[in-house]
Amino acid sequence: MSEGKKIREVRIALKLTLEEFGSKVGVTKAAMSNIEKGNRNVTEQMRKAICREFNVNYDWLMYGDGEMFSDLPQTFLDELCRQHNMDDFDRQLIEFYLTLDAGCREALKKHIRETLSHKKDSPQ
């Protein structure tokens, strides 16, 4: 399978538009379309950006070896929970937060800031 087809497969698996995917790796919708069609080569910088931004296994992208997605963030989250003595609910909260879009994250952070501000201002 060509590299462009693999990138398209990643984009489709993540349910992203050409524009959404391209913006994460710093290219336009048209550039992404050309990459997927094989009309434009993928730079090493773009490969690394795709792997970093979307947790894609570099060996899969380059050579077709292994799984499409890497386990690294899961491992990172496991380590984070271990280091901070977090339980399963803590982990679920973090995983849920990571699924929120930017607008929902901002609304949640605003609510938490306001709650903390009120708590700080109220007499103990």
UniProtKB/TrEMBL annotation:
PROSITE patterns to which the protein is assigned, alphabetical: HTH_CROC1
Domain HTH cro/C1-type: start-end pairs: 7-61
Record CDD domains: HTH_XRE
Transferase is among the record's keywords: no
InterPro entries, sorted: Cro/C1-type_HTH, Lambda_DNA-bd_dom_sf
Keywords: DNA-binding
Molecular function via GO: DNA binding
Pfam families the record matches: HTH_19
Presence of keyword DNA-binding: yes
Protein name: Antitoxin PezA
Organism: Acetatifactor muris
Organism lineage string: Bacteria, Bacillati, Bacillota, Clostridia, Lachnospirales
